[in-house]
Amino acid sequence: MGRGPEGLPGTTAAPGLVEHFFRREYGRLVAVLTRKVGVRHLDVVEDAVQGALLTALTAWTAQRIPEAPGAWLYRVAHNNLIADLRRKTNRLRILEQASDTVDQESEQSPPSYFAGEVADDTLRMLFICCDDAIPRESQLVFALKTLCRFSVSEIALRLFTSDANVYKRLGRARDRLRQIAPEIETPPLDALKSRLPSVQAVLYLLFNEFLGDLMSQARELLFAREQADRAAVHSYLVTTLCPDIEMRLQFTRARNVPRSCEFAPASVPSLS
Amino acid sequence: MGDPMSKKYLFLQRSQPGNWQQPSPAQMQDMYAAFNAWKEKFKDNILDMGGKLMPGGKVVTTSGATDGPFVEAKEIVGGYMFVSAESVEKALEVARAMPMLMTGSSIEIREVSGP
Is the pLDDT of residue B111 over 90? Predict the structure, then answer.
């Protein structure tokens, strides 16, 4: 064929299409759709249009070009856009719910897009460990083992159970994770929220294990102040445990959820 | 088909998703034109333009069905096509001229047995 990919752009004769068709349509569709949904969604619009053009490239070469290529493209781009925005706004709505107690400070920070973008690998893995499909007691064991490198007997000691039981729980967690393996990417935001109590339970145990020199403060926080100010306790744990500022922010935003840390009371008395 | 001497070949196209960059609209226009030129040139050989295969799918065996195929990304078949040619050399010529080879695709050519 001798035709290199560097063939003069715009001078190609594309059967059935006017010159610069793709480029022109791209600009047009981006403009039209951006007006429809607002500039803040520009990136989504651009992706939707790019996707439509690629779809066209495949479909039109494999079959034939439609009667009204412009209208065809618009329809595909529009559908892409609606689908993308629906996904995105769904995330945002849940994020807003999770952060409706955000104080002035966090309000000024840049928005953090939790779903799909948990920047911290460890935190992300922690949420994966706490998958709803895994029994609660297995989640905890699995997270402690996978993320914190606790030995089986160390876990058994902390959970007031036997080594054999810990092994059993680990096995159960691995089985479940294997079943959900294809979708194991970042958990969706609603999943993150529902997993938060489990994640926090793990954090309480981590706190217990690694920060012995802070125990007196911990006791004070967990017992004396717990009833008065759960949020303060939680923030303290978060700032102590999470070196990463982004991670801290995310936990602080969701701090109104820690009601059901059922493992915490069990682990805390063992400090004294 | 027409020509009784010609054989039927299955083209399996594989692309490597990793090193494939999104083309710009101008490049798409070029690709579109190049592909159409290729189609026109070999219109007597192209039996069935086939199509693109969606990612994912299922794998069925006697022990049940699983999500799949789980193979390395570079081994995933992304599209297929039927071509008639008097020899595998001619089929190779058709495949070599395919514009999609430029975007990092590979084409596997298999003769279809039978009439």
Answer: yes
Packing angle of the helix pair A21-37, B25-41 (nearest 10 deg): 140
Give the whole-angstrom CA distance, residue A127 versus residue A132. Answer: 10
Are A54 and B33 an interchain contact pair (Cβ–Cβ within 8 Å)? no
Distance from CA of A61 to the nearest CA of B (A): 7
Measured between CA atoms, the residue of chain B closest to residue A3 is: B34
Measured N-to-C along each axis, helices A136-148 and A121-129 cross at an angle, to the nearest 10 degrees, of 150
Using CA atoms of A241, A243, A249, A250 in order, give the dihedral in degrees to the nearest 10.
-70
Half-sphere exposure of A34 (CA within 13 A, CB side): 13
The answer to whether the Cβ–Cβ distance between A12 and B29 falls below 8 Å is: yes
- Best residue in B20, B29, B52 to probe A by mutation, most A CBs within 10 Å? B29
CB contact (8 A) between residue B22 and residue A9: no
The Cα-based distances of B109 to A17, B11, B51 in angstroms read 32, 5, 15
Residue A266 CB burial class (10 angstroms; 0-12, 13-18, ≥19): middle
Give chain A's residues under pLDDT 50.
Answer: 1-12, 100-120, 182-185, 210-228, 240-249, 251-272
Strand partners for B12: B80, B108
User: Does the interface predicted TM-score (ipTM) exceed 0.90?
Assistant: no
**DSSP summary character for residue A68:** S
Q: How far is B27 from chain A (nearest CA, A)?
A: 7
CA–CA separation, B47 and B65 (whole Å): 32
Please, which residues 34-73 of chain B have a Cβ atom closer than 8 Å to chain A? 34-39, 49-52, 67
User: pLDDT digit string (tens) for A60-118?
Assistant: 887 778 888 889 999 999 999 998 888 887 776 666 565 543 333 333 333 333 334 34
Inter-chain residue contact A54 with B28, CB threshold 8 Å: yes
CB contact under 8 A, B51 and A62: yes
Residue A247's contacts (CB-CB under 8 Å, 6 or more residues apart) are A120, A123
